[in-house]
Amino acid sequence: MRSPIRFLDAAGRPLDALAETAFEASSDGLGWEGMTLTAGSNTHWEADELTTDSHYLAWNAGDAPLLWDAKVDGRFQRVGNAPGELWFCPAGERFTHLVDGPSRFVLVTLSPQRFAQWTGGRRLALHRRYGVASASLHHLARALTEEASRGGPNGRLFVDALGAAMAQGVAALFGDAPAERGALETRRLRRVLDFIDAHLGGELTIERLAREAAYSPTHFARAFKTAVGHAPHRYVLHRRLQRAQERIRAGQPLAQVADELGFTDQSHFTKAFASAFGTTPSRWREAG
Predict the structure, then answer these.
(1) Is 93 exposed, middle or buried (0-12, 13-18, 19+ CB in 10 A)?
(2) Is residue 181 within 8 Å of residue 218, measured between CB atoms?
(3) Bigger pLDDT: 197 or 227?
(4) CATH code at 7-176
(5) Per-residue model confidence as pLDDT tens digits over 66-81
(6) Which of helix, strand or coil describes residue 55?
């Protein structure tokens, strides 16, 4: 048994990334159109700048939470899936994961061409996410796993129906229709603001924030300023300084505050704080 998933390395060369997998089920050889499935387990797994030419879903099929290190926006973060949860990666987007323990999983890929057919040809901007709970997608993955493990007894119509339902679920959970006109609507704005608050210590570029909103960088910058009243970089600085006040009040060392909230160094932090609040962080702490 082998996996039908076509992984590519950083140079675009095919790579057998599941060579050490103990397989439980596979759609290889079953003639599924535009969709594949692999189920199995590994003792550990390392993915270095891997990509696939299909949309990629991976469920934690084990009984315990699965935690691993993932490179997100150039930095490693601890991410994970509870039992039954999945992570999603759009086609062509590279990912680096370091899974240092055993895992049991179900992997499903959907080709962009078939995905477009199943979703009515809608133009969608799809976004990577971790730790996603979806009872409906989990149910579909289990049905597909059962179908593959039995050699495909229900035929193509059955599999296509499950694939279409899965594509609709992916579109609803991970997709936004691109919009290039008008102001930044409330739902997109909320997502961007939540993303900023969750990544204040990281590198928050216009391109990354625009991707969250499914806007072009140029249009996003204008729409964000219209909605918030500040340019994105000014808003990010404002939120970093607000968070800094909270941490200083809680007794966190100033150097640590500066480092963890994305300031170049403590001097940069001090200047930004003084410019915003009219006093240095140390004096503000003493006055508080």
Answers:
(1) middle
(2) no
(3) 197
(4) 2.60.120.10
(5) 999 999 878 899 999 9
(6) strand
